[in-house]
Amino acid sequence: MKAIIGLGNPEEKYKTTRHNTGFLMVDKILEKENIILKDKFQSFFAKKGDVLYLLPKTYMNLSGKAVIEMMNFYKLSNRDILVIYDDATIEFGTFRFKKNGSFGGHNGIKSIINSIGTDDFDRLKVGIGLVPKNIAIDNFVLSNFTKEELKQIETMGKICTKAVSCWISNGIDAAQNNFNKKVI
Question: Is 106 a catalytic residue?
């Protein structure tokens, strides 16, 4: 069993913000697979076959609470999860799969590391663009994507669906080899 976890904030006002990129990418996968979410594990949740989908409603900084609840229920190991989230240190439209590592300043990842007790889990970092020099990072990640960027998010979502499918079927190494690049 594998779990695909998208990070974001649940309120409507955050729906198209840069910090909700994890939610946006998983939403595109769910649309393609025609999967309906329900409330479970303090999250929007779905299960299709051996794949679980989780969008924590705990808000970004407490994402780990929902993740550990699902992992405990399904007896998942840290190697069974893929966390998809925004990254403001790589160019917009770039995908970067990663096997493990520090939280890199991302509070959602920090919460997951603290909750599951390890930083050894797979991630898909989605580039939201570099933070402009005159804007605080908090303001940047909570800003909405432009109309043009939202159009590109549609294409990124389609590519993300293929990338996640590759990860599920072939593992992190294949996903890195095929999708660690600028996709837009």
Answer: no
